Amino acid sequence: KGHASFHHPLTVHGSHPNRTSEPRRSAVLNYFAEGTRSDTDEPLLNGIPTIARGELLNSRFFPLVFDPKWI
């Protein structure tokens, strides 16, 4: 049994409490436009090398998912 939720990041969202003895699992996918640049010198996520402010987010951790030229 499982559920999925797709929404804009500014949408208020939540879920009911986990009333089981099992941990809740989750996966988060963030999509953004090609050409997006880092706006911080701080680490973005644990385990991902820091991307300096102003640098493109285009490493193997931020792959291009869709390019209109592909169709």
Automatic annotation (TrEMBL):
InterPro entries: Phytyl_CoA_dOase-like. It comes from Adineta steineri. SUPFAM superfamilies: Clavaminate synthase-like (SSF51197). Gene3D superfamilies: q2cbj1_9rhob like domain. This is Phytanoyl-CoA dioxygenase. Residues 1-24 are annotated as: Disordered. It comes from the Eukaryota.
